[in-house]
Specification:
The protein has 116 residues and is of the alpha+beta class. The chain has two domains: 30 residues; 80 residues, Nuclear Transport Factor 2, Chain: A (Roll). It has three helices and four strands, in the order ααββββα.
């Protein structure tokens, strides 16, 4: 009789752990945000459009949802070291905006001063 009790406790503990694991894994399932499903332009095409106007090395890319619209955000460093953030419409391929990333250039300036 005692032997069966020893078997029940590990089985119950295993069941609880299994259910807990399943509950945690279901939290990782997300449905796409509205507007994100409309991204018909590939990342490579978006980078090509951005680099046509802002040549350089791609540092970072991200697909974002801005006001229900899928937008690629692409950071490109020019040959002079200026980092530009370009936003490309993920459906039409239109360049929406571009701005020089001041945070990176200020950090680079302070790094250069420290090295001198």
């Amino acid at each position: 009789m005692k032997r069966s009790n020893y078997m029940i406790v590990p089985m119950l503990a295993g069941g609880v752990l299994l259910m807990w694991g399943l509950a945690l894994s279901s939290e990782g399932i997300h449905t796409p945000e509205p507007g994100m499903a409309t991204a018909t332009l590939s990342l490579e095409e978006a980078i090509g459009k951005a680099k046509a106007k802002f040549p350089g090395q791609v540092l970072e890319t991200e697909l974002e949802n801005e006001e229900g619209k899928a937008v690629y955000e692409i950071e490109i460093a020019s040959t002079t070291g200026v980092v530009t953030e370009i936003k490309v419409d993920a459906q039409s391929g239109e360049l929406l905006s571009s701005e020089i990333d001041d945070d990176d250039t200020e950090q680079e300036k302070s790094d250069k001063k420290e090295m001198d």
